[in-house]
Amino acid sequence: MNNSELKKLFNSMTLSEKVGQMGQVTPDFFSNEGETTGPVADIKLNTGELYSIGSILGTHKPEQVIDIQKKYLENNRLGIPLMFMADVIHGYETIFPIPLALASTFDTNLVKKVAQLSSKEAVGNGIHVTFSPMADLVRDPRWGRVLESNGEDPHLSSKLTQAYVEGYQGKSLLHKNTLASCVKHFLGYGSSEAGRDYNTVSVSDLELYQNHLPAFKAAIEAQVKLVMTSFNTVKGIPSSANKWLLGNVLRKELGFDGIIISDWGAIQELINHRIAEDSKEATRLAVEAGVDIDMMTSSYIKHLGDFIEDGEINIETINQAVWRILTLKNELGLFEDPYRGLMKLENLDQNLDNIRKELEPITRSVASDSLVLLKNEGILPIKTKSTKVGLIGPKAQTKDLLGAWSWIGDKSEVISIYEGLQEQFERLTLSTIDDTDSISKQDLVIVALGENSDESGEAASRSSIQLQQEQVELLKKVYEINQNVVVLLINGRPIDLTNIVNYCKAILECWFPGTSGGAAIADVLCGRVNPSAKLPMSFPASVGQIPIYYNYLSTGRPKNESNKDEKYISKYLDIANDPLYPFGFGLSFSNFECGKVEFSSGSLSKDAPIKITVTIKNLSNISGKTVVQLYIEDKIAEVARPVRELKGFTKVSVEPLGCEEVVFEITDKDLMYIHSNLKESADKGSFNVYIGFDSLAPKVGEFVLV
Ligand code: BGC
Questions:
Q1: How far apart are CA 471 and CA 490, in angstroms?
Q2: Partners of 646 in the beta sheet?
Q3: Do 664 and 686 touch, CB atoms closer than 8 A?
Q4: Ligand 1 atom closest to Cα of 231?
Q5: The pairing of beta strand 610-618 with beta strand 592-599
Q6: How far away, in angstroms, is 230 Cα from ligand 1 center?
Q7: Which listed residue (107, 136, 153, 263) is catalytic?
Q8: The model scores a pTM over 0.85
Q9: pLDDT of res. 674
């Protein structure tokens, strides 16, 4: 539809038809299927309201989408199609590793590919909009939602957020297999106090701008179509009612002109936050703050019309919201084809079958690329097929490898660790702890430990981030019998591994690896795939260190080698300041070294960036990939700045005994930071450069910004 046709349609809408577009319900309103929980259970819509509703959340199958859309269009006066939304977080039915695992790849192309493929399967199921990516910056592994994040670093998260949006949306939503992307949760949700979900957030403006905004900015620059508000307060006001946050920051400063959608039930929750007395007041606050779509409550549908008729809210507010919603429907091509190609397919099931067949092998290679080797005392890879391998532990045979946000994922399709290992090792034994004789006879024993999928994700905060005591005991018992122990970890958050690290020769962090998880793990264990992933979050040495992140601010009393025994410095009495495993860390079967580093110039100016070239050598006779990381330290600034910040990363493959050159370009943009006036600019002065394979990379030189 061209713009003037869309305008004409818009002009013919009644007030209640407009208000309807701003509401959303579950599919069971049309088909009596699906789950109704929370405030949705209380929504009682009349027929007029139902057939004016703008979007649906929670369909499962393409046939269901077709049925609902058909029924709806037969009853909607103007023939404005519904938009179908879903949480396509790390796949739809075929499940890729969790986002935190994908972030471990430090590979924007891979993440973009995953988003493209997830879109394809979701589109085949009738979905138009995904509530992904989650761009929340996280620094507290007690918070279960770190699983959905890109980790602790604003630069990495920005690059990956951009890759997700580009992958989902393609070049145009009119192209086949594209989804509109909704970045979430705006803003600061990752800083829920004490890691407890839905808890208070209290961060400074400087912190919000410097750390929490960049990934959202990246999404908006990549033309993301929707932004979701967060459940938390920002400066005391819940995001869904926060005029400053949505109006000044999101609309004006970031220039976002797409749809703002509340999180699930968040408008009603303004009552629990005790800033609204009832749902009418909550409606007024949310609409005045700029929320266009009310996810899953009846607040807008029930109250917006009255506000307009009473002249309490300007119709322009509603008009703008509805125009944005119609614009997205038009961009998705829904006016021309409300079924987005589904009706033209001869066989919907066959189409989905073909997609699954295409995706499954890719889930395997993506998963093997996301496994982080944390420790290896020469025990991995297990080179010979005939090695006697014992397998034990609660994760040995489980199909629970998909992780949270895989609600349509098919568990029966999952390749368990046992099944994956069976493919690679001829003499694999499933061991039990009672059979000490069998354990003692194995060449090595793999102990598979970790979390269940409901122990991380939304509403899955934990005060302890160690493995369950029974698991630790099991590991110790195995180690007593046979010291050739390899630990596999299945989990959705950084775990405190201090109580297990000395009871094994290797640790492979497998996250929730998805549909082909077991096969991918076996690929790494047998050396078919050389691990290359790196931690996107620090792994604490104790829960007491949290929040912990590599890019902490310079303090007045920093701890260093020469003062570490003094009293009045920033340190703990009982433990080190450092995490057990730092951000960016991950081993390989190859042995990489940074060779010569060359700076194209010792100084940089606005128009003249510098290039830093580093030679990466593979000293081993195994080919492999690694992530070369560049960090910068601003020596003197107006405000206290991080001790170092990631500014560049490149995944590079190096042949056995070969070397490769990696070139980083630094521009003045990379040196910009938020000043005390909340404006971004770069200061003249000098900067240290660190290059290496994790956030402890050594200094390689410095340059000056002139
Ligand atoms: C979550 C969102 C999600 C929404 C819809 C909420 O509980 O916070 O991230 O997109 O539900 O499922």
A1: 12
A2: 631
A3: no
A4: 8
A5: antiparallel
A6: 9
A7: 263
A8: yes
A9: 98
